[in-house]
Write a structure and sequence with these properties.
The chain is an alpha/beta fold and 235 residues long. The chain is 43% helix and 21% strand. The protein contains 8 helices and 12 strands. The protein has a 5-stranded parallel beta sheet, sandwiched between helices. A 4-stranded antiparallel beta sheet has the order 6-7-8-9, with helices on one face. Strand 4, helix 4 and strand 5 form a beta-alpha-beta unit. It binds calcium ion. Calcium ion binds next to loops.
Length: 235
């Protein structure tokens, strides 16, 4: 039992709570449940789950407050599962510290896939991701943080400093959607009216150099209107 990943599900809608619990248990996870934010925090501190599935509309306090409370001390991955589908809701949850966002109604396969991606990348970053001299590998792409070089099938890809910084930043947060404003703040330190355009131009150049076709989601997925996410292509 102890080798199972523990997933904490914080959700007040009983049907969804039951459904998600059954889904995770059927797929080899241990599911813990809470139907209020307060109980969720209590369950979190007593069980230290590997990942949290979080509804935003909770009866006692908002899911955004829940994310803030966790992020004060912990990096435990959080996937928001919410009926709020507006871009501003997604951006707020992601900028507060959620790793990913799934909109209700959702597909079981999609939710499971996102959970697997995040668990894999959090394990990855613990092992090697951010150490100096470390390398990040996804499919045929290798990022060497120390020499600041990127290879595709062992051939070096020539990137500008900014392009490298963007790709390195996304890889350090592999599996997490980084919003446009979070990337802009990290790369340029400030934002102005042209920032998003500047980011999009850099991203288009990165995609071209990685030989990605328009619309192809390999390595980097574009969450339209929200931000970008590095994907792990290792399996
Ligand atoms: Ca709710």
């Amino acid at each position: 039992m102890s080798n199972k990943y523990k997933i904490l599900i914080v959700e007040d809608e009983e049907n969804i709570l039951k459904f998600v619990t059954a889904l995770f248990e059927a797929n080899g996870y241990q599911a813990l449940t809470a139907n209020t934010a307060e109980l969720g925090l209590l369950m979190f501190t007593s069980h230290m789950p590997d990942l949290i599935i979080l509804d935003l509309g909770l009866p006692d306090f908002d899911g955004i407050q829940f994310i803030k409370a966790i992020r004060k001390d912990f990096l435990t991955p959080i996937i928001v599962l919410s009926a709020r589908s507006g871009e501003s809701d997604k951006v707020e949850a992601l900028d507060t510290g959620a790793n990913d966002y799934v909109t209700k109604p959702f597909g079981s396969a999609e939710l499971l896939a996102r959970v697997r991606t995040i668990l894999r990348s959090s394990r990855h970053s613990c092992e090697e991701g951010k150490f100096p001299g470390g390398k990040f590998t996804s499919g045929c792409m290798v990022i060497d943080y120390d020499s600041r070089r990127i290879y595709l099938d062992d051939a070096e890809i020539k990137l500008t400093q900014t392009e490298f910084n963007i790709l390195a930043l996304l890889s350090e947060h592999c599996g997490k959607v980084l919003t446009y404003s979070a990337i802009i703040k990290e790369i340029w330190g400030y934002s102005d009216s042209g920032s998003i355009k500047k980011l999009q131009v850099n991203m288009a150049n990165i995609r071209r150099k990685l030989m990605l076709k328009p619309g192809e989601n390999k390595y980097i997925s574009n969450e339209l209107g929200i931000g970008y996410k590095m994907k792990n292509e290792n399996d």
